[in-house]
Amino acid sequence: MLEFFATLHWGAVLQIVIIDILLGGDNAVVIALACRNLPQEQRVRGVLWGTAGAILLRVALISFAVVLLDVPLLKFAGGLLLLWIGVRLMAPAHDVHENIKPADKLLSAIKTIVVADAVMSLDNVIAIAGAAEAADPQHRVALVIFGLILSIPLIVWGSTLVLKLLDRFPIIVTIGAALLGWIAGGLIINDPAGDRWPLLDTPAAEYGAHIAGAVFVVVVGYCLKRRAVRRADASASSGSGSSGAH
């Protein structure tokens, strides 16, 4: 263990931590959005377990990151999945969760965090793997794990802060969902399958895809949320009407 720390490339560790700080903002938003409907006493557990699962999965992704990013249509499929996650986080199906036990809600939040982080990390892991290249080949995997462990408190703290802000400023839910849509648009436009169309490889096309993804998530999420509210109001009015009849 002492030999490992003595020969550790601390410059690479610092780079990995900085990358995680810079790229951890979107992860904190996802974790906060997924945990915002949990009971107060389960929020911390959701943040901790969700972060732990996301970090473990990211370590696995880094092991074969270059191969992953070269697979055609993988980023495209990941972008579509992230669009769906963004819509569901903005407009959760309240009626579906009414009869779900608290433990099941916690598990559902953790699953959402892990899946979203896996999709969003497709690009991020390349930066981390690149930072580890400067180290001894025998230390690279351990170096990545060490750097990610150092970044965990920052992600947890960021998620907790965003959760507190969500309670005070609900508009952040819309902003967070738009962020996921923005990232999804970037994944879709940058998929290797689109390399055959030079038109897609332009700054205008990339920004357009980012904006389209953000707008899609916000508009669809808002429409689904409005529909859920109307259904709830209709159900409440029909229930009060039937009780009044009796």
Question: Describe it for me?
Answer:
By secondary structure, this protein is mainly alpha-helical. The chain has one domain (2-230). The protein is built from ten helices and no strands. The protein has helices at 2-6, 10-35, 40-63, 65-69, 74-90, 94-97, 102-132, 140-168, 171-189, 203-245. The radius of gyration is 21 Å and the shape is globular. Mean pLDDT is 75; it is low at 95-100. Keywords: Membrane, Transmembrane, Transmembrane helix. It comes from Trinickia violacea. Belongs to the TerC family.
Please outline the helices and strands.
Elements: H1 2-6, H2 10-35, H3 40-63, H4 65-69, H5 74-90, H6 94-97, H7 102-132, H8 140-168, H9 171-189, H10 203-245
Can you tag this structure with a few keywords?
single chain, 246 residues, mainly alpha, 10 helices, globular
Q: Report strand %.
A: under 5%
Number of domains: 1
Query: Helix share of residues?
Result: over 70%
Structural class: mainly alpha
Q: Give me the count of strands.
A: 0
Overall radius of gyration? 21 Å
Task: Offer a concise description of the structure.
With 246 residues, the chain is an all-alpha fold.
